[in-house]
Amino acid sequence: MLLKIDFESEMPIYEQLRRQIIIGIATGELELGEELPSVRQLGGDIGINLHTVNKTYNILKNEGYLIIDRRKGAMIKDRLPEVNDDYMNILENELDYLIADSKNRGIKKDEFLKLCSGFYDKLKDKEDR
């Protein structure tokens, strides 16, 4: 998977990296059980601080996406995290913001739903992974 960091973005680098890994898992670019590059390797490959990569990996571990082993490094879990109340609250808050911002910018409901549907359709089902 090719990771692209926008150094001009207001979004923190660790969050850009986190999101790209989650999207990579959902699209199938990253496989369940796949080992990720070491913190040192990934930091060097994309030109970011090792602490940033380490922070990203630890967040993904806490969210249930990764296993971190001192000997093997970071790898994607064989089972992805399940939905819980905390996640539903985060999802609702993010959607509230995204829908409101989109509406303020003139995006109509059908356009918004079409965008959501199009992206959702290009993701793999859990059973396909």
UniProtKB/TrEMBL annotation:
Q: Which Pfam families match?
A: GntR
Q: What CDD domains would the database entry show?
A: WHTH_GntR
Q: Which SMART domains match?
A: HTH_GNTR
Q: Which UniProt keywords apply?
A: DNA-binding, Transcription, Transcription regulation
Span of domain HTH gntR-type: 11-79
Question: Is the keyword DNA-binding in the record?
Answer: yes
Task: Answer yes or no on keyword Metal-binding.
Answer: no
- Domain of life, per UniProt, equals Bacteria
Q: What is this protein called?
A: GntR family transcriptional regulator
